[in-house]
């Protein structure tokens, strides 16, 4: 019997490199694949090698003039506009081809599912969810997941749910489908009053033709695993049951971790593992088992991202890694060579409990208030009672 999922990866994806001391360093991807391999998660798995997406494919979401600017930027650099050449999105060599390959990675994952080759696929280099139609935004040049969702809508899928668990609002994907009732976008993120990009409030609920299609859960800083999971379970399953998607797309940024240097939520690797297992179960329950997973943010490059995304790959493949698994010596030795002063954890867990009390409809703390605000904004638009925890 074959594996339930496919993994898209090639070292060429490391070419998406914003350079210097930029926090989105491609080493996090290499370390993830090395750790997954060392733990046996990828044993016998044929890694699928993506090609660069074509201009026609990228132009499903992005303007042709923007693509031209991305191509031109490495030779002009200083006056290209479109959000390029900033500290967030510095120009780098082969920027178009590297960005197009990331899009190709998520498109290949989408094609695996659409063709029936597999029910699940993971594009670990994908998840560049901030890129907008005509400009780069938040470390993201092209929006691979928006392109993949657009392609899926033309290739057999009529209802797609997008669930974004990055610490930052999934603004680019929301913007791409804000007035499209075929796509339900759900984003759980740190309160936009306290963090980039400053959007993702509960009252952003979709355009005139798609009211209720955008859902935003804006969590207060320092929200930990238990409260985060309570909020997720108070909002997401009910909406998925009402929407009945044919496929679930998830952006799995791990910058929600308490050690992440760019944000202020307080999740653990154990919380991330619980998220992936929950999303897998929801895909089985509400989306026919179809699940396309992608990476995203995550800037604790050595201690967090490789462990969390190894759990993601393992979850997609039904090869769940036990939390108390020891980090393999071959992996820690490699990290020692590139970062000899790094203090690494010993195992695949942060030893945090992920047990939580389900939301009971009461207004117990700040997270409960956020749950109520989101439910009251969108649940009635789906025929659900926002104040009844059974809905």
TrEMBL record:
It holds the Pfam family Hist_deacetyl. Pathway: Ketone degradation; acetoin degradation. InterPro entries: AcuC, HDACs, His_deacetylse_dom, His_deacetylse_dom_sf, Ureohydrolase_dom_sf. Keywords: Acetoin catabolism. GO terms for biological process: acetoin catabolic process; epigenetic regulation of gene expression. Residues 22-315 form the Histone deacetylase domain. GO terms for molecular function: histone deacetylase activity. Belongs to the histone deacetylase family. This is Acetoin utilization protein AcuC.
